[in-house]
Design brief:
This protein is of the alpha+beta class and 374 residues long. The protein contains twelve helices and ten strands. The protein has a seven-stranded mixed barrel. β2 and β3 form a beta hairpin. The longest helix has 31 residues. The radius of gyration is 22 Å and the shape is globular. The two termini are 17 Å apart. The relative contact order is 0.11.
Length: 374
């Protein structure tokens, strides 16, 4: 693997527990290598645990039917946790299992996010389950998944959640190197009053470490990745997908709304997430970075790195191959929960993408001439 900067190379080596250490007396050197061996052992153990969680959570994420679930917590306190360092709070998740039994699982929750944390009635959450509490239940294998909820208690915002779920499903059709997601119908109950405050659609999102384990890789949190550091196939695929959905709120280089998974061959797969600012959803709060040369989120802008034309052609072929399956998602059991108008506008928006990748002149102008040249 060739990194663009020595510092980035050192960071990669350190994160993979193969840190280079400066020369030192024998005793100090031995201690340093012992620390490296210990870090490597811990990493191997965490990878094994993540792989087991991936196996155990497969049933939960493979189900298509939205799951009815309740989250009970001090909702007033949770809504007031607007800090990016909010503490974990006590909560309970409950649901009815396949035998008709009501299952209640204690958990911890904390607020997360950036824009939604500050501006939404109910901010996004991260849950924290203990394996002994989920063992033998439908939530087996879940550890610290993200929960994406509607920003406002409003029918339109409910639609945005379903639309975002569809985008995770689309990327899952294109590659298994994508976050698995499960659509929920969540009841948010206040523990102080015992009353349900709101009910709405939500998304439970697979943890990056579990995704990485499925791909026989590991998550690395390093900014500054350049084309030479990346799997060309996955970089082109992710960038084209973001272009397809009209999303500019991402960056591989800045590691913004991108998980980076290091594979055994040393390449890194960029894996996108968080699509609510995309043009295809067109949420009223979505904005475009003023530094970009577009005015509205519906305007597409290719923000991926440049690669050889044949690499793009392979990706174009995959998008064309998957087109019938992608469009079919909007008439199945989840897609039918979207309004007819939303489905019509969505597919029309996708039609424009397909016109671009299948028109050499448009593809040259909109993609090849716009790609980032480091």
């Amino acid at each position: 693997m060739s990194m663009a900067a020595p510092q980035a190379r050192l960071l990669v080596l350190c994160l993979t527990a193969v840190c280079l250490v400066p020369s030192a007396p024998d005793g100090a050197s031995a201690q340093a290598f012992a620390a490296v061996d210990s870090a490597a052992l811990k990493l191997q153990k965490s990878e094994k645990k993540a792989a087991k969680r991936a196996e155990n959570s497969a049933t939960f994420y493979s189900a298509e039917t939205p799951m009815e679930m309740s989250l009970t917590a001090n909702m007033k306190r949770i809504k007031s946790d607007k800090s990016d360092k909010a503490p974990w709070r006590q909560a309970t998740v409950s649901f009815t299992d396949t035998s008709g039994k009501v299952v209640s699982i204690p958990t911890l929750i904390k607020t997360r996010g950036i824009w939604r944390l500050k501006n939404c009635e109910l901010p996004p959450l991260r849950l924290n389950f203990k394996s002994e509490e989920t063992k033998g239940t439908l939530l087996r294998g879940l550890n610290k998944p993200k929960l994406v909820s509607a920003c406002r208690n409003d029918e339109d915002f409910e639609q945005y959640v379903i639309e975002e779920m569809q985008l995770y499903r689309i990327y899952g059709l294109l590659t298994p190197a994508s976050h698995r997601a499960r659509l929920l119908r969540m009841n948010y109950t206040d523990s102080a009053s015992g009353k349900v405050q709101t009910t709405g659609m939500a998304i439970m999102l697979e943890e990056p470490e579990v995704l990485a384990a499925r791909m026989n890789g590991e998550v690395v949190k390093i900014k500054g990745a350049l084309p030479a550091d990346l799997s060309t196939e996955h970089d082109v695929l992710a960038s084209l997908f973001e272009y397809m959905i009209g999303n500019t709120d991402w960056s591989v280089y800045a590691l913004h709304n991108i998980d980076l998974v290091r594979m055994e061959n040393g390449d890194h797969m960029p894996i996108p997430y968080d699509f609510d600012f995309s043009g295809v959803i067109n949420a009223p709060y979505a904005t475009v970075d003023p530094k970009l040369p577009i005015m509205h989120v519906r305007d597409r802008l290719y923000r991926g790195y440049c690669h050889d034309p044949q690499d793009f052609q392979k990706a174009f072929a995959l998008f064309n191959e998957k087109k019938p399956e992608i469009y079919a998602l909007y008439s199945d059991s989840i897609g039918s929960k979207l309004s007819k108008g939303t489905v019509k506008e969505t597919l029309k928006y996708f039609d424009d993408f397909y016109e671009t990748i299948n028109n050499p002149k448009r593809a040259q102008r909109e993609i090849f001439d716009s790609c980032l040249k480091p």
